[in-house]
Amino acid sequence: MSVFAYGRGKTVNRSASQPPESDGSVFRTDHLMGDLKGRSVRGGVITLTSQAAKLILQTASTMILARLLAPQDFGLVAMVTAVTGFVAIFKEAGLSAATIQNVRISHGQVSNLFWINVGLSASIVLVVAGSAPLIAWLYHEPRLIWIAIALSGTFLLSGLAVQHQALLRRQMRFKALVSIEIGSLTAGIVSAVLAALLGCGYWSLVAMMVMSSAVEALITWTVSDWRPSRPNRATDVKSMIRFGGSVVAFDFLNYFNRNFDN
């Protein structure tokens, strides 16, 4: 409830630390410099509190779902997430980091990056869904086909929120980001528990991930007033794409470094 109240309050009655996004101030960071240390400290406290809350929620949900579902249910979904976890490296294309770190950005640039993220996410959906029969064949488990197809949709939902969340991070709006994380996680857990109680089996875990991604996108668009415009070829984002590419390359190497022994 507080998540949506926060979103509505921001659009109706902004404080001095949350300038209107419609006038382009969402792309500036000079107003943050006056109290950068204080904002960083408060942001650290908020982030640590959020991580603790997430840990409690995740631990509690795991304990509850472990009593409602069979180990096989977790194993089936884990087979697919082993694949989608690797593909997830490419879903943001490093463009979130490009938006955050750039000294000066414009509405046109962020809009172009938004559509690139959406297009890339849609492509990943097609790749994962198209690879579903192959995943099922590799594991000799036909049920993985529909699990993979269902989970592929989470990439598109996530792609819709990449640039909005990047702008929130750029503006150091930590409370809004925590609202997104906790709200989406809670929605996913509730949907999973309800589905498990109804006897949906492994689909309960699928529902948790899909619902979490959907609510994440919804809350993100609620707390952020920024809306993308149509893509404009005249607006140059090549340097930002190159920066994003270097981020993806690092994440790619880091993924294999962490999972090499597995």
Structural class: mainly alpha
The total count of strands amounts to: 0
Mean pLDDT equals 83
Indicate the low-confidence ranges by residue numbers: 1-23
* Biggest β-sheet strands, sense, barrel: none
**How would you spell out the order of helices and strands?**
HHHHHHHHHHH
How far is it from the N-terminal to the C-terminal residue, by CA? 41 Å
Rg, rounded, reads 20 Å
Number of domains: 1
Overall geometry: globular
Tell me the strand percentage band: under 5%
Question: Any overview of this molecule?
Answer:
With 262 residues, this protein is mostly helical. It has one domain (70-259). Helices cover 73% and strands 0% of the residues. It starts with a helix and ends with a helix.
List keywords for this structure.
262 residues; mainly alpha; 11 helices; 73% helix; disordered N terminus
Question: Which helices and strands, and how do they pair?
Answer:
Layout: H1 2-12, H2 36-68, H3 71-87, H4 95-101, H5 107-130, H6 132-139, H7 144-159, H8 162-170, H9 174-197, H10 203-223, H11 238-259
Helix pairs in contact: 1-9, 2-9, 3-7, 4-8, 4-11, 5-7, 6-7, 7-10, 9-10
Short summary:
By secondary structure, this protein is an all-alpha fold. It contains eleven helices and no strands.
